[in-house]
Amino acid sequence: MDRRKGTREFREFREFKDEGRGQGEQAFNSPSDSFEDSDAQDQITHAGTGDSFEKSGEPERKHEPREVVVPGQVVAQGLDFLPGDGTMREGQNIISTKFGLLDHYGRLVKVIPITGAYLPKRDDIVIGEVTDITPVGWVITLGVRISGLLTLAEGSREYIEKNADLTRYYSVGDLLVTRVHVVKPRSIDFSMKGPGLRKLDEGLIVKVNPHKVPRVIGKAGSMVNLIKDATNCNIVVGQNGLIWVKGNSIESELLARDAIKKVEAFSHIPDLTERISDFLA
Predict the structure, then answer these.
(1) How far is CA 136 from CA 1, 26, 162, 190, 193, in A?
(2) SS3 of 261, please?
(3) Pseudo-torsion of CA 253, 257, 258, 262, nearest 10°?
(4) Which positions ≥6 away from 203 have C-beta within 8 Å?
(5) Which one of 129, 168, 213, 267 is at 20 to 30 Å from 243 when CA atoms are compared?
């Protein structure tokens, strides 16, 4: 695999982004070093994953295999249960409103979607591409026909003057780990102010269904940490379904990619962590 930075890599990434299909990853390079701040990286990896791990002091999640449910299906009965994301109440019943995995969290009943497009939410950590530079900032595209603006005020921790050469910070084609700062009816604003938010370096981009991101991360980061430890790769998971992988060799990156794609493909089956562990052994 040619790991040199060049227009071919970025052109293919943009084609994959626009068409929504492809092999699911694309190599790209940058002259600077890769992630070295492990604490910041862990904060990025775990950010915005409310369905992926427990919070202290809350009821313990049931551990039976998750059932695949469809819209209109009764997923719980009785007033003791509360409808969560992907569900609604009809009389004594809680009804699924999505196609996905049934999830019980104490009295709360959720359905985690397994299909559909990414919907940005405030404070989501995402991976996006700089596709244009304007006098007021950088246009960031999330790979799913969703674009927004990274303003001068949010583009860096340092002050950026209005007439500054913005390419000193980010250029067209750069990939950024960024945070969804504001979600408006017709636009999104991003921010680069936060731990670990930065321009990405050489590595591999893996594309997964955004609704499979919680499964890729796993409970308390268990799945992504398993893959990181087994492959010795740095991994950053964007809530928009783009995942950055950087290892010591192409082989380790490809192994991490294959493990991630297996998690995406078999996210509905029980004992998935054990199966992925066996695959990586």
Answers:
(1) 37, 29, 7, 13, 17
(2) helix
(3) 150
(4) 27, 28, 34, 234, 244, 245, 246, 247, 253
(5) 168
Give the predicted TM-score (pTM) of the model: 0.69
Q: What is the pLDDT of residue 154?
A: 97
Give the pairing of strands 82-83 and 108-113.
parallel
The first and second tokens of residue 68, run together, are 């695949």
Q: Copy the structure tokens of residue 2.
A: 């040619």
pLDDT score recorded for residue 190: 98
User: Tokens 């670990």 map to which residue?
Assistant: 196
User: Does the structure show a pLDDT above 90 at 11?
Assistant: no
Contact 118, 210 (CB under 8 A): yes
Please give the Cα distance from 239 to 72 (Å, whole number).
27
* Cα separations in angstroms, 105 against 46, 85, 92, 223: 19, 12, 19, 19
The Cβ of residue 262 has, within 10 Å, a number of other Cβ atoms equal to 16
Q: What is the DSSP string of 147-184?
A: EEEEETTTS-SS---TTS-GGGT--TT-EEEEEEEEE-
Q: Which residues, 6+ apart, have CB-to-CB distance to 278 below 8 Å?
A: none
